[in-house]
Design brief:
This protein is α/β, with parallel strands linked by helices. Helices cover 26% and strands 26% of the residues.
Length: 300
């Protein structure tokens, strides 16, 4: 059974100042998503599922609808602020979305096979897709998940701070912990810091392995994630900013001894657009990849 690629594309893009999911960054006007889909197709994925908001549906489909339907099965699902999840009938009113794990849950009804999860606005690299496709095809199970890890230094922006999941692993290469850190950036002393929950700053090694939200899961994660979401909502009814992140689910299962999660390291360069100032850097990178023969001059 071919794995599925789940692309989280419902983000607001507030720091970018526009709909970066469809912004033209490739030499023939491709969005970052298109490079991910192209890499997934040649790595052996059989389906791509886009998680989008209803307010961007028209612009999103105008950009992508029909572009690669003859090469891979395509599905669309919707995540809005309070998209209902089975078992949660009374979501509290709020403005902020429930987070990345909630975005995964809204796709449960269209995924029945091992699947990878990525962000729409991140470029992960050719080998990363090959590596995780091999894992999902041959090794994924209800008790064995995976993620692709990147070196923090290679994922920083020169134009502002970023959020990253800082990872710890054991001698077997299994993830032992992933902690979401916010406002990570390089300071004047060239050291890298993040802002802690209490507002103070703390240093982190620029060699740390980080999660860029490139996960490999077995489909049996859905009932686990749903049960945790029910508990999360009950515990955070009065906290309109609480977000149900994928690492929360992962950490809980690891700490309970229910899952081993293999960290698949990638030597690929990561590129992403958090700010408008990141755009020319990513465009230059894609031009070089095309010039070096990694991609054709026009993907489709």
């Amino acid at each position: 059974m071919k794995p599925t690629l789940l692309i989280l594309a419902a983000g607001m893009g507030s720091r970018y100042g526009g709909l970066k999911q469809v912004d033209e960054l490739g030499p023939s006007g491709e969005a970052i998503i298109e490079f991910s889909v192209y890499d997934a197709i040649r790595a052996g994925f059989g389906k791509v599922v886009f998680v989008i908001r209803d307010t961007i549906e028209e612009a999103f489909k105008a950009k992508f609808a029909g572009k690669f339907d003859d090469k891979i099965q395509v599905e669309y699902v919707f995540q809005d602020v309070n998209t209902a999840i089975e078992g949660v009938t009374d979501l509290p009113e709020r403005v902020k979305p429930w987070g990345t794990a909630h975005a995964v849950l809204v796709a449960e009804h269209v995924i029945n096979e091992p699947f990878a999860v990525i962000n729409a606005d991140d470029y992960y690299g050719v080998e990363a897709f090959k590596t995780i496709a091999e894992f999902l095809t041959t090794r994924a199970s209800a008790s064995h998940w995976s993620m692709v890890g990147y070196v923090l230094n290679n994922t920083l922006s020169d134009h502002g701070t970023v959020n990253r999941g800082i990872c710890s692993t054991n001698e077997e290469g299994y993830l032992t912990d992933v902690v979401e850190r916010h406002k990570i950036g390089r300071a004047d002393d060239q050291k890298v810091y993040f802002v802690d929950d209490d507002g103070s700053s703390a240093e982190v090694s620029d060699k740390a392995v980080v999660s860029m939200n490139f996960w490999g899961f077995h489909q049996d994660i859905f009932p686990i994630m749903r049960a945790q979401f029910i508990d999360f909502v009950a515990a955070n009814r009065e906290n309109p900013k609480a977000e149900f992140y994928i690492p929360l689910v992962v950490n809980r299962q690891i700490q309970a001894g229910e899952v081993n999660l293999t960290v698949l390291t990638s030597d690929d360069n990561w590129y992403g657009v958090t700010y408008q100032a990141d755009k020319p850097i990513v465009q230059t990178a894609f031009n070089k990849l095309v010039a070096n023969g990694v991609y054709p001059s026009s993907l489709w």
